[in-house]
Amino acid sequence: QLCFAAAANLGAISSGITLGFSAVALPVLENVTESQASWIASITSIGMPFGCLLIGPMVDGLGRKRTLMFVNIPTLIGWIFIATAYEPWYLNQLYAGRFLTGFSCVLACQPAVVYVSEVTDKKLRGVLATWTVI
Q: Which residues form a coiled coil (predicted)?
């Protein structure tokens, strides 16, 4: 049960990395204006409401386990955009990557809580279901 809970909650790690990424990335980006840096840091918050609107129907339609697997797709695409950003389109790639990773932050946490609550014993449910609280 601990292994299932840990696997389901791995998405929360990606969410934390997404939220903290701009703090370490912005100081090393060259030729970025203050306005562009502000967009890079905050565009994840623009993607999050879209994830909130989509997660309910996804969990009901696909199920908890499949939704947890599907969440990896926009996360992976977003991080690939960020990792491969280069001139002349690097800002657009960073914006798109940050939007997708913000979108998937929300997608990663809600189904994990439901899935863990369904597969664990009553004794462990309270502890294991609160691992993803952001």
A: none
Output the CA torsion 85→89→93→96 (10° steps).
Answer: 180
Enter the tokens of residue 32.
């970025």
How far is residue 111's CA from residue 58's CA, in Å, rounded to a whole number?
A: 9
Asked whether the beta carbons of 85 and 30 are under 8 A apart, the reply is no
| Structure tokens belonging to residue 117 | 């609550």
Q: Which two tokens stand for residue 8?
A: 């389901």
What angle, 0 to 180 degrees and rounded to 10, lies between the N-to-C axes of helices 72-83 and 10-25?
20
DSSP label at residue 28 = G
CA-to-CA separations, 59 to 38, 51, 69, in angstroms, rounded: 33, 12, 11
